[in-house]
Amino acid sequence: MFKKILKSYDYSIIVVYLLLCFFGLIMIYSASMVMAVQYYDYPPDFFYQKQKINLAVGFLFFLFFALFPYKAYRSKKFLVFVTVAAVIGLFAVDIFGHATNNAQSWIQVGTRKIQPSEFAKLSIIVYLSAVYSKKQTYINQLDKGVLPPLMFLIFVCFLIAMEPDNGTALITFLIGAMIILCSGMRLKTIFKLGLLGLLLAAVLAPFVILKSDKIFTETRLGRIYGFLDPFGTGQNEGFQLVNSYLAIGSGGLKGLGLGQSVQKLGYLPEAHTDFIMAVIAEELGVFGVAFVLGGLGYIVLRGIYISTRSRDPFGSMLAIGISGMIGIQAFINLGGMSGIIPITGVPLPFISYGGSSILVLSIAMGILANVSMFNRYEEKFKTKNTVPVPRTDSIQENSQDKRPWVNLK
């Protein structure tokens, strides 16, 4: 049986996950070595060595969650633990939080910093997937089937936004919205949710106007000004984006060569975190960018495919949530560094420096690999030992009525 399980794993997503992580490690060393020496008086490989440890720990978690049956996460005790831990972590940031770049998003634990909002994203995926998979028989009842989990999603996003970390709050909300849209509810129910959202926005509008000076702070407005007119504000708000453009333009097709970036020499802030793709474009050109985009795109599309193949609504929504998290986060990061959207300070999945980010992504990839394994195992081995039972058209229609998540397929 163990051999059958090993044969059922989708090794393609595992290989792509590892390739992206190793590629990110190399680029972190290249992007951070000058800054480590000039700004922090650290050894040039300081961030490289820390990220190497992060990746090693992350891979151990990946192996554990890839082997541990994902269906156990649906238990009530586990869901209570996940949700309570997420809320406690977000509240702890307000009490013990460590501020970096105008955001109090980290908790200092010894020499390490933990970002609870990263773990909250994965908690939301597990919670919403489990709850909506259990509510399939009354998924279209707003008061009982839809709104309670949605209110928890909004509450978690509010706590993240109060840090303030609007980028992560937006990603968390969009992940939850994807799971809700793919939960099997009818379009009529989704339309009602949209109307409720518009009503809520109208109610909150006066509050936003009264508190506009606190909501639209100088830092947040500066990011919008830098997005709208980067070259006009190139000495202040648009400084990052202008230097990102210069890095991308300098790379061309082939790039300047690994380690040869000019913009990382003090011109491009956050070169090894939020703007690491600009360094990749400058040093490795279009080919380096295509490698990253191809790897990320493959994981996202493969996750969607795994979702459509799953016979279990819980596994299907888990796969949708994980692939959505990676895709949305990649779009927001790449959109910010290329000027498509305002800069939000979101790391690029698997590539940017960060312990919490790579740990959460590794756990998510382990869960995705486990969902895929169960799908392939059932298709390859269980169906061979199953004797088909003739079914009438009426029985088939009734079975489809009881499985609204088939809309995912």
Model description:
The chain is mostly helical and 409 residues long. It has one domain. Helices cover 69% and strands 3% of the residues. The protein has 15 helices and 3 strands. A 3-stranded antiparallel β-sheet has the order 1-2-3. Strand 1 and strand 2 form a beta hairpin. Helix 11 packs across helix 12. The longest helix has 34 residues.
Keywords:
409 residues, mainly alpha, 3 strands, three-stranded antiparallel β-sheet, 3% strand, disordered C terminus
Coarse morphology: globular
Estimate percent helicity.
55-70%
Strand content: under 5%
Model regions low in confidence, pLDDT < 50 over at least 5 residues:
391-409
Order of strands across the widest beta sheet? 1-2-3
Order of helices and strands: HHHHEEEHHHHHHHHHHH
How many DSSP E strands? Answer: 3
Q: For the CA atoms, what is the radius of gyration?
A: 23 Å
Average pLDDT number: 84
Into how many domains do the coordinates divide? Answer: 1
Distance between the termini: 29 Å
Number of H- or I-type helical stretches: 15
Q: What structural class is derived from the secondary structure elements? A: mainly alpha
Largest β sheet strand count, sense and barrel closure: 3 strands, antiparallel
Enzyme class: transferase
Transmembrane segments: 12-33, 53-71, 78-97, 117-133, 145-162, 168-186, 193-210, 275-301, 313-332, 352-374
Membrane topology: Multi-pass membrane protein
Subcellular location: Membrane
